UniProtKB/TrEMBL annotation:
Annotated organism of origin: Alteromonas halophila
Any one GO MF annotation of this record: D-cysteine desulfhydrase activity
Domain Tryptophan synthase beta chain-like PALP: 34-294
Annotated protein name in UniProt: 1-aminocyclopropane-1-carboxylate deaminase
Entries under Gene3D superfamilies matching the protein: 3.40.50.1100
Lineage: Bacteria, Pseudomonadati, Pseudomonadota, Gammaproteobacteria, Alteromonadales
Family assignment from sequence similarity: Belongs to the ACC deaminase/D-cysteine desulfhydrase family.
Superkingdom: Bacteria
Length: 302
């Protein structure tokens, strides 16, 4: 076996999969009328964040030989760049991360980790960052780009869906509605495509994007599906925006359940679920499965 494949196998052996599913009994109004469980993808690896591993794994596992370089994109707190930075360090793959904005004066904990892992970090102006989907522009940024494996922002591409589908199939799960946070839509799209029978998927938008987020999900799916929708009332002002109420909710939830919640993704999802349950939006006895998508590294700056 190649050294690359051995490194990949060693990384895979560290993963805590299937990720544990636990039932939740929070003291939320109305919560006793429904069954809530949470799939703890935040626990699959101490460094690689839950859904980012799920989305990257089909790409990494399909490589028969190592690419000369990985290239990807993200913000200064990106869970995706963090997961990919760690994976490329472990796999000894050269990795260039293009970051939106210039953090040289104030590197985030995420960027410090990337530097520690030997990632080639390049800062782009917001205007240049907008051109990240243009292959000619990417080539002009990086001479290796024609041979490099370019992974889109968030790891969100068609191939990512298989990793999310796998997460829903890796153990028997009994639920009526599965719920996850939504940013680029690949996690929700993967869940939607893995549902059976009467099951529904619900996304909680973590940014302002009515219609836009729906189109991202639809574009990733191979055909139209009728078993999903996105709730848009719980973004708390936009991506990575929050309120004192949300922060206090996350703290209280964590104290009560011992399940960590950060305010960018999982906290907004949990806040939404509490609110919807209190409004009686789920019938009595409904079985809700929450996906804890990880992302706790991003909360180190809070
Ligand atoms: C990236 C991320 C999401 C959003 O997933 P998408 O597939 O981009 O919709 C949700 N939760 C966490 C923790 C993330 O890091």
């Amino acid at each position: 076996m190649s050294a690359f494949r051995e490194r990949l196998d060693a990384l895979c052996r560290e993963l805590h999969v299937p990720s544990p599913v636990q039932s939740l009994t929070p003291d939320w109004p109305g919560a006793q009328a429904v069954h809530i469980s949470i799939k703890r993808d935040d626990l699959i690896h101490p460094v690689i964040s839950g859904n980012k591993w799920r989305k990257l794994s089909p790409t990494l596992l399909s490589l028969s030989s190592p690419p000369s370089r990985l290239i990807s994109f993200g913000g200064g707190f990106s869970n995706h760049l963090h997961a990919l930075g760690y994976a490329s360090h472990r796999l000894q793959l050269p990795f260039t991360a293009f970051v939106r904005g210039d953090y040289r004066q104030h590197p985030t904990p995420m960027l410090r980790d990337l530097h520690h892992w030997g990632t080639d970090v390049r800062y782009l102006t917001k205007a240049d960052y907008r051109r990240r989907h243009d292959p000619a522009f990417v080539s002009s940024l990086h001479g290796d780009a024609p041979q490099a494996l370019v992974i889109p922002e968030g790891g969100s591409q068609q191939s990512a869906l298989a990793g999310i589908q796998h997460s829903l199939k890796e153990q028997p799960l009994v639920f009526d509605t599965v719920i996850c946070p939504v940013a680029s839509g690949a996690t929700l799209a993967g869940l939607v495509s893995a549902l059976e029978g009467h099951q529904q998927a619900m996304g909680i938008a973590v940014l302002k994007g009515q219609q836009y987020l729906e189109s991202l999900v639809s574009n990733l799916l191979d055909r139209p599906y009728a078993n999903w929708h996105i709730e848009h009332a719980y973004h708390h002002g936009g991506y990575a925006r929050n309120t004192d109420e949300l922060i206090a909710f996350c703290d209280a939830f964590e104290t009560q359940t011992s399940v960590p919640a950060e305010p960018v993704y999982s906290g907004k999802m949990l806040f939404a679920v509490r609110h919807m349950i209190s409004k009686g939006m789920f019938p009595e006895g409904h079985r809700v499965l929450l996906i804890h998508t990880g992302g706790l590294q991003g909360a180190r700056s809070y």
